[in-house]
Design brief:
The complex is a heterodimer of chains A (about 450) and B (about 500). Chain A is of the alpha/beta class. Chain A has 3 domains: about 120 residues, NAD(P)-binding Rossmann-like Domain (Rossmann fold); about 120 residues, NAD(P)-binding Rossmann-like Domain (Rossmann fold); about 100 residues, Alpha-Beta Plaits (2-Layer Sandwich), CATH 3.30.70.1450. In chain A, about 30% of the residues lie in helices and about 25% in strands. In chain A, the strands form 5 sheets. Chain A has a 6-stranded parallel sheet with strand order 3-2-1-4-5-6, sandwiched between helices. In chain A, strands 14-13-12-15-16-17 form a 6-stranded parallel sheet, sandwiched between helices. Chain A is globular. With about 500 residues, chain B is mainly α. Chain B has a domain of about 150 residues. Chain B has a two-stranded antiparallel ribbon with strand order 2-3. In chain B, a hairpin with a 2-residue loop joins strand 2 and strand 3. In chain B, helix 2 runs antiparallel to helix 8 and helix 13 packs parallel to helix 17. Chain B is globular and about 70 Å long. The N and C termini of chain B lie close together (about 10 Å). At the A-B interface, helix 8 and strand 14 of A face strand 1 and strand 3 of B.
């Protein structure tokens, strides 16, 4: 496939790196410094603007299958997509950073008229991800699927966890829930009945909402009811987005720390029941005077990795039980988690993964990326020629697991004797390496 | 400040006001009261002549300067013309035999929609005079200046300063970007509602004359009634319910009502912070009053009486459906608190206004929170929007001056022989443009027995209260006068020490 990317920033370069091996990739950027990054990659770099007809023509936009506009300017991205759509027939993906471009409808919305097929707003995506994690006590990742009938939670186990008592086969997890993955020592794998969980493991559990409630109380007993005190450090786009989302959750008691006085005034104007504090989130004295240590969750979303890390570690030091930190450079993700941040999360990482999946994923749709891209959850429809049989006889690839069968508006969290039929929709959890094989298996089998 | 411009504009407004006297003159002639009619014609002639002279006195340079009127000049024009018009509107009363101080009191009470009266004996006046009393309230309710801005094309641009000097709510509330159209639309809504109430009251059994007089004083939140026992004198429950509804309307923001009507979307009403607080105050006060009064006279009549009196005082109308002077101290306390609240901004009501109370309450709460979180950013919000610091200061200053004026006036009235309850309630009733107070100035009594100086003081309090204190007080600042000059001519280099 031919893919044209306008903008060689972090998103552009990550995409190009991932796609270069198997696709024809053109990258357009007017900054000569950026060109160096692409020297070592197997891509074609064009100096110029994505809004130039001449440059787009040189990139062969008329034969391109995908066009991704990922410059730092929303307006430029929109114009580039509109132009690309006029010159050829690529699927256009447009990155934006402000709410007004999203329109009212969910997909594309107000920008459909410009010939834009998909709008990606990484900061909003990040805020939504953080919101889900914040509201579940103890969880370090949380997702919902299929309109809320399937949930995913990720926990880190400590030595007191009841899940470490015996091998998985002997644990009586609530019916309707399933441990789909374990991450231990940097390796993620799908556990079997004989696997025994250990303290320090991260486990990913999926299941129906009722069952997951039972799981929550099993894994993280205590703390039920009452207010959840959340402190956000950094009132940028993500901080504001997150605060606006959390204001809709009645049990959340929220405050946000912002260093800049003018920005603080703007935050206070757009938020209704959040306490906006004007001060530096990396100032220990200030954090102490505002009793930040008493918060249940600390979210640090400053637009600077160093300061974010400092603020988060100070929060940890003050005794906040759960610390969520935004990471700008994807390379820092693992480092952050190693030094004691519970959840390190990157806006661009999620955006890149979701764009990659749209380009390479074909008919299946990516629902979530887990553990910084090492595993994913996707949905696919079973091929019509698939012969119905119980799951234990299907024999799927290693490192993948059917997490739920969606039939009608019901979700079945399967055990070995549940039957997969043709035309079922299924949710699959798989490691990144196994994803393609699993997809092949369910969508093309003719028995 | 350019005096010639102020004089000229006052002249323009006064001359137009002169035309108003012909309406009561016609009414008086219609009822065969020719002596009173002559008084109205005389007032018209005097007013027209004075207006014309003042208009000419400014010269052509003043005429040309109208479009470049400055804020302080707008405040001066509004303050001065209100005082002047009140004097001129008093001419018919004086002609009918009322003393000069009383005539001015009655005239100011009418124009400022206060509704306090010094008339001892209602039978001694004709229908023309009572019509004029009601009509002055109707004109003053939406604002004389607003009417003139709507009518006079010359004020299309300069009228902006005048309009907001007359109705100085905490924020500028417009229904059209053009001030002239705003004034015109609001006046049309006001007039339309008045017609509606006339029809409703007629159907409830009032004579056309009574219906017109009451409709004019209800929508103006005025409170004058041609009946010596006020609305209570008619013993008409249906009329009381109608007046309850229209009092509520008169106390709500007209610009908001216009927007709701124009868009056919009444959710904007429910979403308005001030209107909700206003409705809540009405509900709570009515409940307290019903509890204080007891329901021995039947639930519905008691609720009606309580609701009527709550709205009458809260919207600063000042009607009485019963003699609440006879009520218990607890019941009177409820009314006394309402006197210090007032209706919504942009309505016909007086008082400090609900919205200022909301802003002040939120400001106080935020200040308390600030002691807990010294670094917190705590804006005061109204309807989801941040209230700018300048408006906050304005609201605080308003309350301080309101209390200052209130204390001084009360001091004067009490010093000159009234008891304290009379002094307090007479002052708030006049400063808040309400009308009746308690004791000596109760709903069935009058202000005529107060000391003459008290009556003059209260007349000024009505004026200051109607223009919301700051308009008048700014104009009284000496520096405004020191920097004044007569000429309105545009000079390239200002010369020092030029004599007017």
């Amino acid at each position: 496939m031919r893919i044209v990317i306008a903008g060689g920033g972090q998103v552009g370069s990550s995409l190009a790196r991932a796609l270069a091996a198997s696709h024809e990739v053109f990258v357009i950027d007017h900054d000569p410094d950026v060109a160096d990054v692409f020297q070592s990659m197997d891509v074609e770099f064009l100096a110029g603007s994505g809004t130039s007809e001449e440059v787009l023509t040189r990139a062969g936009i008329d034969r391109a299958d995908f066009f991704v506009a990922a410059t730092g300017l929303d307006e430029v991205n929109i114009v580039a997509c509109a132009l690309a759509n006029r010159l050829g027939h690529p699927q256009t993906i447009c990155l934006v950073s402000r709410a007004e471009f999203l329109g009212t409808s969910e997909h594309g919305g107000g920008l459909g008229a410009f010939g834009i097929n998909r709008v990606v707003w990484p900061e909003a995506q990040l805020a939504a991800d953080i919101e889900r994690i914040v509201t579940v006590p103890g969880a370090i990742d949380a997702e919902v699927f299929a309109g809320g009938i399937v949930r995913l939670l990720e926990y880190r186990l400590d030595e007191h966890s009841p899940l470490t008592a015996t091998a998985l086969g002997g644990l009586h997890l609530p019916r309707g829930s399933l441990i789909v993955a374990v991450k231990r020592g940097g390796r993620i794998f799908v556990p079997r009945g004989t696997t025994r969980l250990e303290a320090g493991d991260k486990v990913v559990v999926m299941g129906t909402p009722d069952a997951m409630h039972a799981v929550e109380t099993l894994v993280h007993p205590g703390r039920g009811g009452g207010h959840l005190h959340v402190t956000i450090i950094g009132g940028g786009d993500v901080g504001l987005q997150l605060a606006q989302r959390l204001e809709h959750v009645p049990s959340v008691n929220l405050r946000i720390l912002e260093r800049d006085a003018d920005r603080g005034a703007l935050l206070a104007a757009s938020l209704t029941r959040t306490l906006v504090l004007n001060g530096d989130g990396t100032d220990l004295e200030f954090l102490e005077s505002e009793n930040v240590g008493r918060s249940d969750v600390l979210v640090s979303v400053i637009d600077n990795d160093e300061r974010n890390l400092l603020a988060s570690l100070l929060g940890r030091q003050l005794g906040v039980p759960k610390v969520i930190t935004r990471v700008g450079r994807p390379a820092n993700l693992r480092l952050f988690e190693r030094v004691g941040i519970d959840v390190a999360i990157s806006a661009r990482g999620a955006a890149v993964a979701s764009i990659l999946h749209q380009i390479t994923g074909g008919a299946s749709s990516l629902l979530a990326v887990v553990e910084h891209g090492e595993a994913r959850v996707f949905e696919l429809t079973v091929s019509p020629t698939f012969v119905a049989r119980p799951l234990k006889d299907v024999g799927t690839a290693e490192d993948a697991i059917v997490a739920a069968i969606l039939r009608g508006d019901r979700a079945i969290v399967p055990r070995g004797d549940d039957v997969v039929r043709a035309a079922d929709r299924i949710l699959i959890f798989s490691t990144q390496a196994a994803a393609d094989r699993v997809r092949q298996f369910f969508t093309s089998e003719s028995a | 400040m350019r005096y010639s411009l102020v004089v000229h504009l006052c002249g323009v407004l006064v001359r137009l006001f002169g035309a108003m006297f012909f309406v009561p003159a016609a009414v008086a002639v219609g009822y065969g009261e020719f002596h009173d009619a002559l008084g109205f014609v005389l007032a018209a002639v005097v007013t027209l002549a004075l207006g014309h002279l003042m208009r000419r006195a400014g010269g052509t340079s003043a005429e040309e300067a109208v479009e470049r009127i400055r804020r302080v000049e707008g405040l001066a024009v509004v303050s001065a013309s209100w005082l002047l018009i009140a004097h001129l509107a008093a001419i018919p009363y004086a002609w009918a035999g009322v003393g000069l101080i009383d005539a001015l009191f009655e005239s100011m009470s009418g124009l400022t929609t206060t509704g306090a009266t010094v008339f001892r004996d209602f039978s001694q006046f004709g229908r023309g005079i009572f019509f004029w009393r009601s009509m002055t309230q109707w004109l003053g309710g939406m604002g004389v200046i607003a009417l003139f801005v709507a009518v006079l094309p010359r004020l299309a641009i300069g009228g902006r300063e005048l309009f907001f000097a007359e109705a100085p709510g905490p924020s500028e509330d417009k229904v059209s970007p053009q001030i002239r159209r705003t004034a015109s639309l609001l006046w049309r809504l006001y007039a339309g509602l008045t017609v509606l109430q006339v029809l409703a009251l007629s159907m409830a059994g009032l004579s056309l004359y009574d219906a017109v007089c009451h409709a004019m004083t209800t929508l103006a939140a005025g409170g004058f009634s041609p009946h010596p026992l006020s609305v209570g004198g008619y013993q008409n429950a249906a009329a009381e319910w109608i007046i309850i509804v229209f009092m509520f309307i008169a106390g709500a923001n007209f610009a908001l009502q216009y927007r709701a009507l124009a868009r056919r979307d009444f959710r904007v009403l429910a979403a308005d912070d001030e209107l909700r607080a206003y409705a809540a105050v009405v509900a709570v006060a009515t409940l307290l009053l019903v509890l204080a009064l007891g329901v021995s006279g039947g639930v519905v009549p008691t609720v009606r009486t309580a609701l009527f009196q709550v709205l009458s005082i809260l919207t600063t109308t000042g009607y009485a459906s019963v003699d609440f002077q006879l009520w218990s101290e607890q019941a009177k306390m409820v009314l006394l608190v309402l006197m210090f609240i007032g209706g919504c901004a942009g309505s016909a009501s007086g008082g400090p206004k609900v919205v200022r109370h909301i802003v002040l309450a939120r400001y106080t709460l935020q200040s308390l929170r600030r002691t807990l979180h010294p670094r917190a950013v705590l804006p005061v919000k109204l309807g989801g929007r941040v209230v700018p610091e300048s408006i906050l200061q304005n609201v605080v200053v308003f309350f301080l001056f309101y209390l200052l004026v209130f204390s001084i006036c009360t001091g004067i009235v009490v010093a000159l022989g009234a008891d304290i309850v009379t002094g307090l309630t007479a002052t708030i009733a006049c400063l808040g443009n309400i009308g009746p107070g308690f004791n000596q100035v109760g709903p069935m009594a009058h202000f005529g027995d107060l000391h003459p100086i008290s009556r003059v003081t209260l007349t000024l309090a009505m004026w200051i209260g109607r223009l919301e204190v700051l308009t008048v007080l700014v104009v009284l600042r000496p520096e405004v006068w020191r920097a004044g000059q007569w000429s309105a001519e545009v000079r390239s280099t200002p010369r020092a020490g030029e004599a007017p």
